[in-house]
Amino acid sequence: MHDPIDKLPFSGSDSLPFFKQLLKEKNAELHRQFDPHRSVLPLLHAKSDFIDAILGRCWRLFLGDHAPRLSLIAVGGYGRRELFPYSDIDIMVLLDSEGAAPRQDALVQFFTFLWDIGLKPGYSVRTVEECVREAIDDQTVITSLMEMRLICGDQALYETLREAIAPDKIWPSDQFFAAKMKEQRQRYAKFHDTAYNLEPNIKEGPGGLRDRQVIAWVFKRHYNSSTLKELIKYGFLPVSEYNELVDAVEVLWRIRYALHLQTNRCEDRLIFDYQRELAAQFGFSREDQQYNQDVELFMQFYFKTVQGLERLNEMLLQLFHERFINGHTDIKPIPDNAQFVSINGYLEAVDEQVFIRNPASLLEMILILQQHPELKGVRATTIRLVRKSLHLIDDDFRRDKTANRLFVKIFQQPRGLTHQLRRMNRYGILAAYLPGFANIVARMQYDLFHIYTVDEHTLFVIRNLRRFSLEKHKDELPLCNQIFLLIGKPELLYFAALFHDIAKGMNGDHSTIGENIAREFCRQHDFSAHDTKLVAWLVRNHLIMSMTAQRKDISDPDVIYKFAQQAASVEYLNHLYLLTVADIRATNPELWNSWKDSLLRELYSATHLMLRRGLPNPAGQTDRILETKKEAYDELLKLGLSKADIDASWRHVNDDYFLRYSADEIVWHTIAIASSSEAELPLVLLRPQTQHGSAEVFVYTTNEGNIFSISTATLDQLGLTVLDARIMTTLDNYVLNSFQVLEQNGEPITDLLREVHICSVLRNNLLNKAVHERKNIHRQSRQAKHFPIPTSIRFQDDPLSHCTIIELITTDRAGLLSKIGRAFLKQHINLHNAKITTIGSRAEDMFYVTDSALRPITDAETQKKLREEIVSALGG
């Protein structure tokens, strides 16, 4: 190849046509040789060797006598001999002690000629000292120099530079490793930490070619190795995994090569415009296919290749960390577990038979990682063992109750859910345990707004739901944060998210098919009837709120009424709102905006208000009452209560009780009521709600007028924030009051003595019918102080309850409910029911009241006095 180039005539600008033609012919030749089904490595080498010859010829002719005393060096991908059709050609001229001045004109002519013939090289001109100085300051420079290759010129000068940048001189391997890990984290963040973007970057994205280069750079820095095959020699990879690495890189090389040829430029983004033609080139097109099926198959092929490279990258970098950074083996036991140990902070199976002896340990491993945040991940040898053991997750495994409980428990953990679900997906555990999930792994979505594969979108939805619960993210979406605190079992939301798109790609309505898959899962995993129905309903209806908000006139009361009938309860509405927001935000980071936010909030608020006021015969209400009753009844019988005890405990409650409380809350109440006599009233209970942080304070007693006022004043003086309250008075004058509370600073109640103290003080105050006045310890939020919500009080009749409804909207403040309670006492008002909602600094409360003779308050003068009393009590 070199001889024809060396014999080319060379007479300045007159030589341009010859070199341009030579480049054109060579590129055309390589284009003809490209086969999408064969390795492109020979083509990459051929292009590099050809450019070497061109540069060598020009170097000698332009530099003349200076050529032997300087070094012309290839760096970057060109240094690796990996030149794709439109790759950058990066070169460096290494100067001797005389510097650049004597060769300035010759170098300018050299670089100008290269640009004129169309090579457009990226170049630098430096001395050895300058290279070292730049490399010390910038790890990207040392990375580029590590891959340098002498094209022609002074070999000794080149070797001087190699010695000057060796690990024993600058950038020792441990420091270099740390720098590359930081760089990789930053690079991943640019792609939202996912490789599964529908228009991925084949070079820079997670799992792309850059990941393979990171492996090579780190390995080469430590071992001064010239080939990754030595990963086998040093015990990092078995032959099979090395071949898997090579095959994955070859696939990405072939796709990148085809992408360059298709676009006629250095294009590394697999955007929609190119995917169909690439699918055809790589053999995924057939005449009998459905529309887009060829592209889906091609992209699944790509994403599964990337997934394998991601896993190998994780394993190798972890092993490098052990070898380069730790330098020793630190083994620690895992408390109360004989199957795993911690080695250098990574979870390791005690032997290769762990999963064979107990296949459920595949899920137990994930749970351990959640419960021990000090663990950094799974050790590489155990990752290999997991991959070899996936066949153990069969139908028997999926029906095994121990495995079922472990899987559910993973979703109930307060931390690490999203991170570990990604791990389960990466290792193949999720697809093995949920065959339906395997259907959506790496599946594309062509709907103009989803930018992630279905599985990745699903995991983003769960991540978004988790963020709603975290204090550090509450300012992103305060309403979602407030509503999430009212969710009794967040895992039900997570499971609804897991299944909401699981039927994408199946024939039929994915919401309906997904509902059936979710229901079957819930039954197999022993969910209660209530929880099963909620999860299945959410999957079936996960699109109705966004469609109503964006496609219908939500200022129309009929639209709100119909949507409220579909939701049927505040509980279902709260779950659906959170799932809807999380779903939209997981489709595309750019899709969520203030307009969508305001539409959904407006729909939520209007529907919430309508549901609180009560719907005439809302759909499914009777079924829900019967369902909750049966579920609670069956559970109480299991716990040993007799039918007589249950019936006696329920003799004072009405149907509204079974609508407003869940089965597990009713079980808790019933056990306490059944074990107490009338003489022991008032009954005051407190149950920590570890799932969502708040605790429930429950009061059961006969109605003596000021129960609500005393309860709220006591909770206020104890420094508690009331998030939600359910106030009920039965027809035979018993009170069932429930308060969801947090500490004033927003933290949950965690001290047992504190719990006992709260119950004791509240019961004593109820017995004594008084609260000792003392200065309130609450502080008003800055938002409430500077942006107060005007107080609004409305009266309306409620013929169904024979009460008057007082609807109060105001700024939430210290002791709000106790002040209202005192206002009721002063005006001789009986409180029969209340629905309390606090969203951020906004209180939206409804009180069902009568006068002292148990009649609705219809007199305008009485209403005026009561309004004035409430406004006065609130300080305005």
UniProtKB/TrEMBL annotation:
The source's superkingdom equals Bacteria
Which cofactor(s) does the record list?
A: Mg(2+)
What does its activity-regulation comment describe? Answer: Uridylyltransferase (UTase) activity is inhibited by glutamine, while glutamine activates uridylyl-removing (UR) activity.
Which residue range or ranges hold the HD domain? 454-573
Alphabetically sorted, this entry's keywords are:
Hydrolase, Magnesium, Multifunctional enzyme, Nucleotidyltransferase, Repeat, Transferase
Task: Name the InterPro entries for this protein.
Answer: ACT-like_dom_sf (IPR045865), ACT_dom (IPR002912), HD/PDEase_dom (IPR003607), HD_domain (IPR006674), NT_sf (IPR043519), PII_UdlTrfase/GS_AdlTrfase (IPR013546), UTase/UR (IPR010043)
User: Known Gene3D superfamilies for this protein?
Assistant: cca-adding enzyme, domain 2
Reaction catalyzed: guanosine 3',5'-bis(diphosphate) + H2O = GDP + diphosphate + H(+); [protein-PII]-L-tyrosine + UTP = [protein-PII]-uridylyl-L-tyrosine + diphosphate; [protein-PII]-uridylyl-L-tyrosine + H2O = [protein-PII]-L-tyrosine + UMP + H(+)
As recorded in UniProt, its EC number(s) are 2.7.7.59, 3.1.4.-
**Record-level GO BP terms:** regulation of nitrogen utilization
Molecular functions per Gene Ontology? [protein-PII] uridylyltransferase activity; guanosine-3',5'-bis(diphosphate) 3'-diphosphatase activity; phosphoric diester hydrolase activity
Q: Where is the ACT domain?
A: 696-782, 805-876
Q: Where is this region: Uridylyltransferase?
A: 1-335
**Pfam families recorded for this chain?**
ACT, GlnD_UR_UTase, HD
* NCBIfam families per the UniProt record, alphabetical: UTase_glnD
Primary role: Modifies, by uridylylation and deuridylylation, the PII regulatory proteins (GlnB and homologs), in response to the nitrogen status of the cell that GlnD senses through the glutamine level. Under low glutamine levels, catalyzes the conversion of the PII proteins and UTP to PII-UMP and PPi, while under higher glutamine levels, GlnD hydrolyzes PII-UMP to PII and UMP (deuridylylation). Thus, controls uridylylation state and activity of the PII proteins, and plays an important role in the regulation of nitrogen metabolism.
**Which PANTHER family does the protein's record reference?**
BIFUNCTIONAL URIDYLYLTRANSFERASE/URIDYLYL-REMOVING ENZYME (PTHR47320), BIFUNCTIONAL URIDYLYLTRANSFERASE_URIDYLYL-REMOVING ENZYME (PTHR47320:SF1)
Domain remarks: Has four distinct domains: an N-terminal nucleotidyltransferase (NT) domain responsible for UTase activity, a central HD domain that encodes UR activity, and two C-terminal ACT domains that seem to have a role in glutamine sensing.
Please give the family membership noted in the entry: Belongs to the GlnD family.
Q: What is the protein's name according to its record? A: Bifunctional uridylyltransferase/uridylyl-removing enzyme
Question: What organism does the record attribute this protein to?
Answer: Methylomicrobium album BG8
Give the lineage: Bacteria, Pseudomonadati, Pseudomonadota, Gammaproteobacteria, Methylococcales
